[in-house]
Amino acid sequence: MNRLIEYMLPPAKSTMAGETDALFYFINVTSFILLFGITVAIILFAWKYRRKSEDDITPVISHNNKLEITWSVIPLILVIIVFGWGYSTYVKNITPPSDAYEIRVVGKSWLWEFHYDDGTVSVNELHVPVDRPVKLVMSSDDVLHSFYIPDYRVKKDVLPNRYTSVWFEATEEGESVIFCTEYCGTSHSNMLATTIVHSEEDFQTWLESGGGDDEDMSPAERGEMLIERNACATCHSTDGSRLTGPSFQGAWGSEVPLENGETVEFDENYVRESILEPNAKVHEGFQGVMPSYAGTLDDRQIDAIIEYIKTLQ
Ligand code: CUA
Known about the structure:
Cytochrome Bc1 Complex, Chain D, domain 2, about 35% helix, heme, iron, electron transport, Cyt_c-like_dom
């Protein structure tokens, strides 16, 4: 039985998951019992009351009060239970505890950005402490997305020009996958992220390190780390191969052909502009689909990325 339950739902890793699952199983098990009972009754009655001879005439039955009350009251009670249970679970699900730790979430085509209270930013990795309620305040930079963590049983649409929120309390350390569940364009299916649940202590250490950003690294090393950490490498290769965006390999100092027929030199200004306002100058043959990193990367980080790209000759 436990095996079967494991196959039906993803692991339950938040405080609310157990309650949501219990209601899910209640509805499914009750529906199955009713379906089974009704099907068996139909088959038995069809056999038992079949026409047995030429003059076997069915009597006219206008009604049966006892039966009609039974089959009205039992479903009514079941529906009231499901409504009451569902409503109380829903209210708990949309009401974060007042001491919840708040994280800002920004959906962009096609990545997830997380902003923490001390200014730390992470891309496609949501870091949270274990056993502490976390409230996510979410919005989109462009189109509709939807934020979904199956292991926590939380899901909510993410909209431009409006905030929505979800909350959860992770019950164990480890990783869980985050999906975008609103079709949002070419790379919708790649709009994945991971929650990383730390102990309270490790979470504070992670925050203090600026999310693993090390300002003591050499600029080129830091640039390489930032490109990995900010999901740049999902679209821009560093070995010359073609992905969604142009490769960084050998790009430095080259003449970049643009969609509008002009050319531009691949220098500091071009890289900076392309990070902050990606669609200002679109490389010929590529779609202008990159999200802006304004507010995600600061000037020193952009400098580091430039230094790293220079090394890719
Ligand atoms: Cu974002 Cu689908």
